[in-house]
Please model this.
Amino acid sequence: MRRCEFEYDLPESRIAQTPLEDRDTARLLVLERESGNIEHTRFDKLHEFITRGDLLVLNNTRVMKCRLLGHRDIGGGKVELFLLRKIEDGIYEALGKASRPLRPGSRLVFGQGRLTATVLEKDGRKLRVSLDAKQGGIDEVLDQIAEMPLPPYIKRPKGPDAADEMLYQTVYSRRPGAVAAPTAGLHFTRKYLDNLADLGIEFAEITVHTGLGSFTPIRTEQIEDHEMP
Model:
């Protein structure tokens, strides 16, 4: 498959900036595999297309507050950093962005010094993180000084707020580790999940954290040649 086969125009006016008040009333497109027929309906009609004994697999990953806004220790240039995953104690895989390249040895400051990071690999892909000893563990510090990473097509001039932190999680999220939500599950409500259970639908959970691969652009013309990090 070629990359150009996936290109399409999506006007900004068609990109919702906030979800519907009732998540499960969002539109749902159903494709019948055998006939190719397409039906437009609502998400809360999903039970009409599945039957008793069918299994729904839910990804229980939870989006971390991992977007850090800070500055260089020397020079003061602005820095944006995404902590992606812990490699070992004090060492993290990250995605960094700054006005000038982040080179090994650069020291970065966040939260007025509550968290500092030393770049170990170029572009901030690997960091050594240090905390103010009085501030507690890294999860506690991140919860206080970091932001939830929202997709770039959701515009928040002042950054995510408390409502976003709730709305950009699935209702069954419970295992922190993702840098982006499994968006297909955002339309489920707890009430609708209970209704499906009453209809005999079965559930299983997996944990798949969305990481750096979600943000890596596809640069190869042949999709099969693209390598996910």
Summary: The helical segments are 138-145, 162-167, 190-198. The longest strand covers residues 78-88. DSSP finds three helices and twelve strands in the chain. The chain has a mean pLDDT of 89.
